[in-house]
Amino acid sequence: ETGVTQTPRHLVMGMTNKKSLKCEQHLGHNAMYWYKQSAKKPLELMFVYNFKEQTENNSVPSRFSPECPNSSHLFLHLHTLQPEDSALYLCASSQERGTVNSPLHFGNGTRLTVT
Amino acid sequence: KQEVTQIPAALSVPEGENLVLNCSFTDSAIYNLQWFRQDPGKGLTSLLLIQSSQREQTSGRLNASLDKSSGRSTLYIAASQPGDSATYLCAVPYDRGSTLGRLYFGRGTQLTVWP
User: Fold this and answer.
1) A24 CA to chain B: closest CA distance, Å?
2) Is the Cβ pair B44, A48 closer than 8 Å?
3) Of residues B2 and A115, which shows the higher confidence score?
């Protein structure tokens, strides 16, 4: 198994649909992240969970709703999205120990298309 | 807020050349800097992480240097191979606080190495 697994790999949804993206990490890390990669922008941080507690919401619209039931799983619930939300959504994890950092480990992402 | 800039945006070279990819950042008070590789349709793979107290890090044919005072980092790739073809991204943390996976990314350099 790879370290960080994301499902589905591809998702096409209409603007009125509700869907969820799933991320699972098998690395024993205590922090998980959602990043968004659009065609015309650098990678953008969306949400951070540290020890299952959300510590960052980077001004993300409420149509994106994260959930972290335990330190190994992270979800991104989607509803009433806009076409401009089409992007590659990447999940990542790391082991945070105070000021000692570890490299981020990324999943392969979910390619989302909103029609 | 950090602004991370990478030049060139794209680079196409024949196999065997030695390459330099550049990254600059606006706030020199960084805790570390990371270089990542992204293959098409995939997530990011961490290549090198340089702590602020270090000047460089090496891994195989890759060497990354960091000059905090000038706000610059370079990634040197020796004896390039077609398998090195990918997008290379640099990233710096939001701040010196915890959860150091909160990163600002550059737009990346798209590298093509042809046989």
Assistant:
1) 14
2) no
3) A115
Q: Give contacts of A11 with chain B, Cβ < 8 Å.
A: none
Mean pLDDT, rounded, for B46-62: 92
For residue A99, pLDDT beyond 60: no
Is B91 a residue whose pLDDT tops 90?
A: yes
CA atoms of A1 and A74, how far apart (whole Å):
17
Contact at 8 Å (CB) between B28 and B72? Answer: no
Which tops the pLDDT comparison, A99 or A6?
A6
Distance CA B99, CA A94 (A): 8
User: Using 50, 70 and 90 to split pLDDT, how confident is the model at A101?
Assistant: low
Q: Which two tokens stand for residue A7?
A: 């499902």
Cα-Cα-Cα-Cα dihedral sign, residues A100, A103, A109, A113: positive
- Kindly state the helix (H) or strand (E) to which residue B9 belongs, with its residue range: none
Fill in the DSSP letter of residue B69. Answer: T
**B38-55: burial string, b at 16+ Cβ within 10 Å, e else:** beeebbbebbbbbeeeee
Best mutation target among A10, A38, A43, A96 (most B Cβ atoms within 10 Å) is A43
- Is any Cβ of chain A less than 8 angstroms from the Cβ of B101? yes
Is there a contact between A82 and A100 (Cβ–Cβ < 8 Å)?
no
Looking at residue A71, the DSSP 8-state letter turns out to be: T
Q: Two tokens at A94?
A: 């790391």
